[in-house]
Design a protein that fits this description.
Elements: E1 12-15, H1 41-55, E2 58-63, H2 72-81, E3 88-94, H3 100-109, E4 112-116, H4 121-127, H5 137-147, E5 152-159, H6 167-176, E6 181-186, H7 202-218, E7 222-225, E8 247-248, E9 253-255, E10 270-275, E11 280-283, H8 285-292, H9 316-323, H10 331-344
Parallel strand pairs: 1-2, 1-8, 2-3, 3-4, 4-5, 5-6, 6-7
Antiparallel strand pairs: 8-9, 9-10, 10-11
Length: 356
């Protein structure tokens, strides 16, 4: 059972900057934005070399504890650097809040784009206002409409109280903009926060999600949930952390998870460190072994679950943040995942797109 989770093949993620241009209500790394830190470009190039030497391909994933397009110069430099390699693909995960020149460049140079957008204007501007609390919806909508014609475009939508009962409306909205792929996730607790006023029960979300998923299918739109990312085939692991796939942080660490956006917040997930003086990345083999052990065969709470090999134990970052232990699970999600497994079925073939 060595199958890589469908959520991502081996990739290298660049957490490019802590700066952001939106003021999202539920941001899990909001406290970091004031640091205004940026990824060392030499660190990026060294990690790409190491990655290519190990895997023989390069899958670039531009991400950020902030907004990656605020570092377009570094994105362009990394893309240019990778022209010396064969078998290179690129993915950008963004809030979609950028100017038209940036939009056109992305349309010509990036293979897959995921834009985080929570729905029509009244929902988007509630959850994801601009940094000065003005509207973000018009610019994001314009860029979605353009990129839907240029790249393989997906939308990543967070589901909370404001939009849980509006999922059909959300699907209709994105359908008009030309979107074919939407992934949703229930709101989870930001690091160091509770966000009680927005929390919804996972089973409530699952029951309303399945109705929306069937509705989307009639419109030829793939509507996915983070609860179902491994329903396509068996795996012991939840997501790309299992390799572990490198996530480069702005403080020169390599971690295994987006939520580990620096080397200190979840130290057991930090398994590499870059030394700018020597231009060498030191990898901690014991840490790597420990991360690899985080799978359902080693998780007591998953022992008797009938869908554990189509779940993988849930998000490592959420579990570390909310349960204080990356080997724990969010039990409140289990009933919802089992419900969806029965409704959707498992091992029915791969999904049309990797989840963001």
């Amino acid at each position: 059972m060595k199958k890589m989770p469908h959520c991502k093949k081996n990739c290298i993620s660049f957490l490019l900057t802590s700066k952001c241009n939106l003021n999202c209500l539920y941001c899990y790394s909001k406290e970091s934005h004031a640091r205004q830190k940026s990824l060392d470009i030499n660190f990026a190039k060294k990690a790409i070399d190491d990655f290519y030497n190990q895997f023989g391909h390069v899958y670039l994933r531009f991400f950020g504890e902030g907004e990656p397009t605020l570092e377009m110069g570094k994105i362009k430099e990394i893309i240019k650097y990778c022209k010396k390699f064969t078998n290179v693909e690129s993915e950008l995960q963004t809030n979609g809040f950028f100017n038209e020149d940036t939009c056109k460049w992305i349309g010509k140079n990036i293979d897959i784009v995921w834009i985080s957008c929570d729905g029509p204007e009244e929902i988007q501007n509630y959850y994801r206002p601009a940094i000065n609390n003005t509207k973000s919806s018009n610019i994001v909508e314009r860029n979605i409409k353009y990129l839907a014609k240029k790249v393989k475009l997906g939308i990543r939508t967070s589901i909370g109280r404001k939009n849980i009962n509006k999922q059909k409306q959300i699907i209709d909205y994105f359908c008009v903009l030309g979107v074919k792929y939407i992934y949703t996730d229930i709101l989870f607790k930001p690091i160091g926060s509770k966000l009680k006023e927005e929390s919804i029960f996972p089973l409530e979300y699952a029951k309303k999600f399945i109705i929306a998923k069937r509705y989307a299918a009639h419109k030829n739109i793939f509507y996915g949930s983070f609860f179902e990312i491994n329903f396509d085939g068996k795996t012991k692991y939840f997501c790309r952390f299992c390799n572990p796939s490198p996530h480069l942080t702005t403080d020169n660490y390599i971690t295994c998870c987006d939520m580990a956006y620096n080397g200190e917040i979840f130290p057991e997930m930090a398994y590499g460190k870059y030394n700018p003086k020597t231009d060498i990345i030191t990898y901690d083999k014991k840490k790597i072994k420990h991360i690899l052990e985080r799978n359902v065969d080693n998780m007591k709470e998953c022992e008797n679950c009938e869908v554990k090999y189509f779940c993988g134990g849930g998000c490592i970052g959420e579990c570390a943040n909310e349960k204080g232990d990356m080997f724990k699970i969010k039990k409140e999600n289990c009933e919802a995942i089992r419900f969806l497994a029965k409704k959707i079925g498992c091992d029915n073939g791969k999904y049309p797109i990797y989840h963001p």
